[in-house]
Specification:
By secondary structure, this protein is α/β, with parallel strands linked by helices. It has 14 helices and nine strands. Helix 2 packs parallel to helix 4 and helix 7 packs across helix 9.
Length: 351
């Protein structure tokens, strides 16, 4: 199928820098897009061409409605739309506006998994976000918490994290109890200050509207009318995870994030997150969202680093080849013969 799409005024932003958005559509949908002076010519399978037509129509409708996403945002929105045939550019933009009430930056998915994560947080009362570093698990959860509070869906935000060092022993930290635990909770503060004005964050922290606390202080509490986030959940023990999950009160929502490849516990097999994934999968009202390296939104090098470490772990887990014990036995025999030769030389015996 081949069609020609009209070039309307101010359509150029849809093409992207150096036509990167058009190339993304070509690669994702298997179509050919030729930009001519009179029109945009699209050729490919009928369904794919129709999806391109819908993207162009949605962009024009958004432009007329006064929505003008910059190139980075638009490229991310297109990734979500192209990954899911049921998703439209207008639906992604509407969801972004709805989630961005009172937030300095928009809460926008940059991949299909991030979109499913945001939808799960809106739908279910408990969501697990599991995946490698840099996939936006914590940032999106904090953004959704702030948006929920601004929309009066929650009266407070509670941010929780286990106080476990990443492979180091820092010893006793100086200061008050809050000053001792603040270094462990810094990523949560960073997300808050990035999403809201610093003065507003400080005021909410002072009034305990936003509470940042280590996991050890959660026992015995019932958390009502709250949006609760536990970060770095892979570093919880089985007992700590059970204790945290049973704190959920009325009209509350919990998001648990973690990366099972970065467990800092003395015994990684005792991770409460790993156990929860196995025990709670399929429980009604609980969603599990798994992220991959393609969802990483940090520097492009982070994707390559994650893949390199995954490749190393995969090689370590490969089973031994059938011939390997024979090779080892042969090597041992050679060493034994060499040892006998050396011993023979020491005693002056002929070899």
């Amino acid at each position: 199928m081949k069609t020609a799409l009209e070039i309307t005024p101010n359509l150029e932003p849809l093409f992207g820098t150096r036509d990167e958005n058009l190339k993304l559509m070509e690669d994702s949908l298997g179509v050919r897009i030729d930009l001519r002076s009179d029109a945009v010519h699209v050729q490919g399978a009928e369904e794919a061409v129709q999806r391109v037509e819908r993207i162009f129509a949605d962009f024009e409708a958004l432009r007329r409605a006064g929505v003008h996403p910059h190139n980075g945002e638009l490229h991310a929105m297109l990734k979500v739309v192209l990954a899911d045939p049921k998703m439209t550019l207008k639906a992604v933009a509407d969801g972004t506006r709805q989630r961005s009430t009172g937030i300095k930056r928009g809460v926008q998915a940059r991949s299909a998994n991030q979109q499913r994560y945001l939808e799960a947080i809106e739908r279910d009362d408990m969501v697990f976000g599991i995946g490698p570093a840099g996939t936006g698990k914590t940032y999106l959860a904090v953004a959704m918490a702030v948006a929920a509070m601004n929309a009066k869906k929650a009266s407070r935000i509670i941010l929780v994290r286990p106080a476990v060092e990443a492979g180091e022993r820092l010893g006793f930290l100086p200061g008050s109890l809050q000053e001792k635990v603040d270094p462990y909770l810094r990523p949560l503060y960073d997300a808050l200050y990035d999403l809201c004005e610093p003065e507003r964050v400080d005021k909410m922290l002072e009034k305990n509207v936003i509470e940042v606390a280590p996991l050890a202080f959660m026992r015995g509490r019932t958390l009502n009318d709250a949006f609760i986030i536990m970060d770095e959940a892979q570093n919880t023990t089985s007992e700590q995870m059970k204790m945290f999950l049973t704190r959920l009160g009325n009209n509350s929502k919990a998001v648990i994030t973690g990366d099972i490849t970065q467990i800092d516990l003395p015994n990684p097999k005792k991770s409460g997150l790993v156990e929860a994934i196995n025990l709670l999968d399929g429980v009604e009202g609980i969603s599990f969202c798994h992220f991959e390296d393609v969802d990483i939104v940090r520097h492009t090098l982070v994707q390559r680093i994650i893949r390199a470490y995954e490749q190393k772990n995969l090689q370590q887990e490969l089973p031994l080849e059938m011939h390997e014990p024979v090779e080892r036995a042969t090597t041992t025999s050679v060493h034994a013969v060499s040892g006998m030769s050396v011993a023979a030389r020491r005693h002056g015996k002929p070899q």
